[in-house]
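Intended use. Records like the one below are meant for learning the mapping from a protein sequence to its folded structure. Do not use them to infer anything beyond what is encoded.
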Amino acid sequence: MSHNPYAPPSASVADPVPQAVERPREVLIAVRLLWATLALAAVGIFFTPSQAALAGLWTFVIIALAVVGVLWAWVIYKIYQGANWARISFVVLVGLGILFLLISWRTYVATFRASPTAAADSIIQTVLEIIAAVMLFSANSNAWFARIKALKAGG
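Structure written out for the chain above:
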C-alpha cells in the first residue's frame, strides 16, 4: 500500500526562476545618452564661469557637484534596472530644469556670452536629455517598465 489517504498534501517547493526581460533598444540608447550628459556636465564645469569659484568657494562647488553627479549616476543606474520612479524623477527634474532655463533665460544668455563652450555644452546636454526622456516614454519602454514592475510584484 503506497498511498496513505491521511498523509498531508505534497507540493514541490522551489524558488521561482527569474525571467530575463530584455531591455528595449530605446532604454539602452536613453541610458547611454544620460551617461553622456553626465560626462558632459563633468567636463562643462571647467568651462562655466562661476561667481562661487571667483569668491574662493571652488572646493565647495566641486564637492557639491560631485554629490549631485553621484546621485544622478545612481538615478541613471536605477533607470537601467527598470525602476519606474527613477524614470519619472528624471523627467520631472529635466522638466524643472527647462522651466528654470525659460524663467531665467537672461542669466543663461549672459553666461553663454562669457563662455561659448559652456553654452554649447549646456545646449547639447539639454537636447540629449530631451531625447532620452522621449525614448524612456516610448511604447516599447513603457511596456518594459510595466513588465519589470509586474515581475517585482510577483506576476
